[in-house]
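Many groups now describe folds with learned vocabularies. In that spirit, our science desk offers one protein's residues alongside their backbone shape tokens.
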Amino acid sequence: MLILSVSISGLSWNLGHRTQSMQHVSVVVVVVFVVVVAVVVAVAVVVVLVVVVVVVVVVVVVVVVVVVVVVVVVVVVVVVVVVVVVVVVVVVVVVVVVVVVVVVVVAVLVVVVVVFVVVVAVVVVVVVVKGRNLSLFLRW
């Protein structure tokens, strides 16, 4: 700054002009310095604003992704639970129906066997009694 002042002031012819010239150079240097500082501050503010906007956008995107993932996981869990409950209910109903059918079939078979045994017993008794003495059987 001093060299610039001296070289510009060297172009002047008298002391008064040299002093004015140095004052002009000092004013210009101060103005340039203020402009440079203002530009640097403006650029810094813009950079900070851009960084803040980028951070906000990234945070919003991350929050949205997390919410979507949580919703998808909850939906999948609910669907899996519903499917498992439906399958368990169907299996229980099928098992109950099969058990009821088996019990009914076994009961019918027992009744048929009991009836068959009773009929055979009656036939045997009738044949035996008829062969011996039918009148004794009829008295009873």
User: Anything to note?
Assistant: The chain has one domain: 2-139.
